Amino acid sequence: MRIVLDAMGGDHAPQATVEGGVWAARKYGLEVVLVGKRDTLNSELANYDTSSLSLQIVHASQVLEMEADPAYTARTKKDSSMVVGMDLVRAGKAEAFYSAGNSGGVMAAALFRLGRISGIRRPAFSLIFPTSKGHCVLLDVGANTDCKAEWLLQFGIMGSIYAEKLLGVQEPSVGIVSNGEEEGKGSALVKEAYQLLKASHLNFIGNVEGKDIPKGRADVVVTDGLTGNVIVKLSEGLSKFVTGVIEKEIKSSPLTTLGGLLARPAFARARRVLDYTEIGGVPLLGIDGVVIVGHGRSNAKAIMNGIGVAKRAVEGGMLQAISESLQDTGL
Questions:
Q1: How many Å apart are CA 118 and CA 294, to the nearest integer?
Q2: Which of 56, 127, 151, 261 suits 30 as a labelling partner, its CA being 20 to 30 A distant?
Q3: Each residue of 13-46: pLDDT tens digit?
Q4: How far, in Å, CA of 78 to CA of 309, rounded?
């Protein structure tokens, strides 16, 4: 298997991306195609023993910066590492693409170079959200701020396939974010989407309130991109706030400091549950190609694990499963 890595994408590129690519080639036994400025990447690779690894460099003279306008730059910078990498997938020279770069740029480049799966109205950013039962798939988390009911149905279909093919969840349950559990609750969009989801072949369990998401009430949680993004950003802020309060209180007296030292292994395990580097990246669902998006702050570990997500998506036949599922629903 050959996975394309946007080696210039992310806050810590190219150091972290090259290191993560080397680790991924070693761990998964696949070929990693590093796309970016050849001289820069050769200089980084010189720091590692790659004699037994399958690594390739494909030159791209431009970079789509993190702060750039996504759509405009994706159209005009045709020799950027993102666009060149996507073209390798489109040409059948690689099975998947991974980037921790500008997420809007990834979306734009994917739409321009790969297009959508036939029948998909809008691609969606998905997220692996930690819950008391493990994880759930939350989507959309930012690609589509204004949605139609049929899009939310398609998000449910794609999220369900993702949960089954990549996370190993059998008959994943699907819920829709609303302001109450009762069927009649929610906005006009939620009410309309509720009926479509209810009539579908999905294992739909109804409305899910915000408090129910971390409880793991549903394996797949569907919402519009604005609401999903607010959920994610609020959760990140609350996590940091609560962690800060706990650390401050632990250090407030000798006795609590001692207790904190004794509880350190438990805190370490809790941090791993919330650590995005353990996941590495999530698929941009609905694109006609396996495209995995990583966090902009991704380190080498996150890059490696994100490439692992790409590998599992290819092996699980995610694209074909989404296409076949859409045909079954008549969409």
A1: 25
A2: 127
A3: 899 999 999 999 999 999 999 999 999 999 999 9
A4: 26
- pTM here is 0.84
Rounded distance, CA 244 to CA 119, Å?
Answer: 46
CA-nearest of 44, 38, 51 to 20 is 44
User: What token pair was written down for 22?
Assistant: 């080397």
**Which long-range contacts (C-beta less than 8 Å, at least 24 apart) are formed by 51-60?**
53/22, 53/25, 53/26, 54/25, 54/30, 55/21, 55/22, 55/25, 55/31, 56/31, 56/32, 57/33, 58/4, 58/33, 58/34, 58/84, 58/85, 58/88, 60/8, 60/35, 60/36, 60/84, 60/85
Go through the domains of the chain in sequence order and give each one's CATH number: 1-120+279-321 (3.40.718.10), 127-250 (3.40.718.10)
How many residues make up the chain in this entry? 331
Q: Residue 130's pLDDT is what?
A: 85
**Nearest CA among 2, 5, 9 for reference residue 62:** 9
Amino acid identity for residue 194 in this structure: Y
**ω into residue 140 within 30 of 0, thus cis?**
yes
CA separation (Å) from 85 to 36, 126, 283?
9, 21, 16
